[in-house]
Amino acid sequence: MKEKIGFIGLGVLGSAMAENLIKAGFDVTGYDTNSEVLSNLAKIGISKGSSPRDVALKSDVVLTCLSSIDAMMEVFSGPDGIDKASKENQTIIELGTFPIDTKERIKLYMDSCNKNLLDCPVSGNRILAKKRQLTAFGSGDEGTYNAVVHIISSFAEKTFYVGSFGNGMKMKFCANILNLVHNSIAAEVMVLGMKSGLDAEIIHSVISGSGSSSSMFETRGAMMANNNYEYEGMNFSIPIKDSRFISDHAHQMQVPTPIYHVALQSYYAAIAQGHSDEDAAAVCAAMERAANIERPRNKKKKNEF
Question: With respect to CATH, is domain 4-164 assigned 1.25.40.80?
Fold first, then answer.
């Protein structure tokens, strides 16, 4: 019999993970506050739930991938929240990026109704999620994690157990810093090379796979080379949201993060220039403007992912 999986939060990233759960053979019931998202679930083989409580009642294991703290509170403890579903010892896997104390707060809600919450954020964007190339950082009870790691592996290429509850978020903060810095520095390299007279596609081809490369350069560098940011792996709203959590955590730990905060400036510039709804690779467009170079828009190519 197929395991029944609930998935709450089917946005840009969540929907890609849910599709991989379907491909892996799980029976998936989904819920999202966006009615348009709900209306499209049948197209990818996902049954529609009417609320977080309804999804939890219909599932053996529930995954959540939410966009805000308010959404998280509503899903876990609202009038129709997961805590209202009378299924004891059910495992809930929280995949999002939030302050550690917020996740600890929802763990108290789950403890109170005898559910097992894992803190398991993922690193990567929609592009990597579609390819099943995410990395997952699991934390919480190790036995609970081991019992569901096969589910996590259906959408994450690399899975790690990193210790007690909350360690997943600590690891994710470190990974997010690297992701953002790598993306910004990839844009700097592309713009410097192009203004020096190098072809954008050649820059990307030569550096990809070398010791100078990174996953961000190879994935988002392709978008930069194509001058096309319409395929949204992840727009600017998520990294900007996460930056507040990361900065607060670094402040609490009294750890300076100057390179990260310098890299953030290119994100602010891209948003100010109107790129907020495009993929975050559009930091390259912002840097091109700062460097006073412009590529003809009619040469944009379709991204192939």
Answer: no
